[in-house]
Every structure is written in C-alpha cells, then in structure tokens.
Amino acid sequence: MEKAKFTAGELAKRIGGELKAVSEIEIAGVRGAPDSEPGYLTYAEDRRHLELALERGAGLILLAEKLYQEMEEEVPALLVGNPRRAYARLAELFPDLRYLEEDNLDDMNRGDEKGIHPRALVAEEAELGSGVKVMAGAIIGSGVRIGAGSRIGAGCILVSDIRVGENCLLHPGVKIMPGTEIGSRVEIQSGAVLGSDGFGYATEEGKHYKIPQQGRVIIEDEVEIGAMTAVDRGTAGETRIGAGSKIDNLVQISHNVKIGPGTLIAGQSGVAGSTMLGSGVVLAGQVGVEDHVEIADDVTITGKAKVSRDMKEAGVYSGIPAQEHRVYLRQQARLRRLERLQERIEELEDKVKELSD
Questions:
Q1: What does pTM read for this prediction?
Q2: CATH number attached to the domain at 105-329
Q3: Which of 49, 117, 171, 255 is catalytic?
Q4: Looking at the DSSP assignment, which residues form a beta bridge with residue 210?
Q5: Angle at CA 194, nearest 5°, toward 119 and 198?
C-alpha cells in the first residue's frame, strides 16, 4: 500500500499536472467538492463545483486550465486535462481501509498473525497469501485460495474451490459459490452473489424441471460489482466478466453471459442467458437484454431500453425495442404531435361531413 499522505508536489509529479499551489501542502485523502475540506484533494469541472470546493477550504483542486484562468482570486489548483479522470487516478494512492483498521473493531488485535479475526471460520485446507485480512463472521471453505493483500469483509461466505486474486476487496456479506475464479484488484460490494444457479428449466405438461447448473464464473482483473448484484454460473461452460468492467447495484447477469473488457452496466439492468457483450459497452439504468443476443464493441444502450436483436455496429441505441438513437428521437417527436394531428383529422372529418350534407 502507498503511504497515507502526499504533498501537492508529489501528486503533481504523479499525474503530470501543472501545480498552482504551495508544493509542500500535505494531502491526506480525496473528497467530492461538496464534502471537501483543508488537507484533502477534490476536483471541479464547472464554476459551481469550484466555488463549493473553495467555500469548504479544499486543500488542492484538480482543474482544467480554462476554468482556472476564469478565476480572479487565488485557487490552490493542480491543472490537468481531465479533472475527473485525474481524481480517479490519484484516489488510488489513498488506500481504502474500511473494515480493516484495528480501531474499527475493538478486538481486531486479537486476531492471529495471518490477519484472521478470532470470530472468522477458515478451513485448514484454505490457502491465504501474505497480508490477507479476514474479518469477523467470515467463512472460508476448503479449497479456497486468496491472493496476497486481499481483504474479506465481515460475514462473507466463500464456500469452496474458489480462487481470489491479489489485492481484492470483498465488502461485508458477499457470497461466492464453488467454481468461481476472481482476478486481482477486484472489488465486490455487500450482498452480491457470484456463482448462483442460473434460471434454466425444461417444461413439459405444465411442470418445470430444473436443468443442472454446473458451470462456473470467471471475474477478470479490476472488475467492480455492485451491492445485491447476482452473477449466475454457466449451465455448462462459464459466465465471464471482462477486465476493467464495472457493474452497478441490483444487476442480473445470467448464465453463460460473456461481457467484454471495459463494459459499464448501470443499476437494475438485466442480461439474459448466453448473451455476448463486446468491449466498451454501456448499459444505462434498467436496460433489459434478451437471451442469445450479441452486442458489438462500443455500443451504448440508453436507460430503460430493451435489446431484442443483435447490435452489430457501434453507436447509441434507445427505446423498446432498441433502435438507433436518432431514429428513436424522430419517432418520439412524431408521437408528441399525435394529439394535434388527431384534432386536425377530426376537424377535417367535420368539414367533409358538412360538405357532404
């Protein structure tokens, strides 16, 4: 882990920005503009957020040069091309120690030298790398391997035959089922379930017979999975989430889904079985994707849309069923005119009737 504090000068060197503040200022962490305070780094992409940060006495503010030049007063700024991206990069320097610091749990110091809380249950056959922390109430089954530096929050359950890479963070209450493989630097929020059975049944004469779900789940490096999200195991084969993908809360990823690298999926979206998403795909909130659909790289599906056919070209799609965004907008504009058109038709019908009489 990096040290807990950096000077403004050190941060400027890390990010390659132009420093407009005292180089020796110490920065202890990152905060959003509304919550910023002295000694903390924040960012501002517009005048309103910049003024908020200044009102709260932010120690250092990531800014674009144009916005900095608009200010008449002195601003403790670090000038960068993309303040939001720079903020995300620098935030990585300040470790997230939730659930892990001794002063967060009065009796953490009763744990053994391996970092296992006395009220955690860890099978003798489990393999824990150096620096692994296992918090109170966690259960680690046999055949589980956890890489160096990973942190297992309170109440997590890792059933058996699971691989977790290095420097992962499992928040309290995560459940991971057998046959799941997790890469390094993965973060999983509370209540998420990985490796649950897929929804597969054969129906005959009104009865539904379960199809065995015997596949696995593969989570690649640097993936984040939100709270209460479910990732089902493959019926046979695997469900896979590509490196660097980020999945929000309350998302359903069904059996045998393949998600490419760098994909973003917002809350309450659902991806049905055996669907394939390319790299850089974006699903906005409450998007539904039918089964056995293929979505090409760099496709964006806007909120509440439904994908019922393959999307073979990059672009933005909207509506039910999802179609090119510009086509959708034209259709919506026409729909808004329907009431007036109906009125005109009724007026014309009345005139025709008058002429007929």
A1: 0.81
A2: 2.160.10.10
A3: 255
A4: 201
A5: 135
Indicate the range of 15-24, 66-75, 129-138, 337-346 predicted with least confidence.
Answer: 337-346
What mean pLDDT do residues 226-248 have? 97
**Encoded tokens for 240:** 């896979």
* pLDDT tens-digit series, residues 56-112: 999 999 999 999 998 888 899 999 999 999 999 998 888 766 655 544 444 444 445
Residue ranges, comma separated, of all CATH 3.40.1390.10 domains in the chain are 6-91
Q: How far apart are CA 357 and CA 201, in angstroms?
A: 65
User: What are 163's two structure tokens?
Assistant: 């691989």
DSSP 179-201: TEEE-SS-EE-TT-EEEEPP--E
Q: What share of the chain is helix, strand, coil (3-state, %, to 5)?
A: 20, 30, 50
Cβ of 340: how many Cβ atoms within 10 Å?
Answer: 9
Q: Write the CATH number of the domain with boundaries 6-91.
A: 3.40.1390.10
Q: Is 208 marked active-site?
A: no
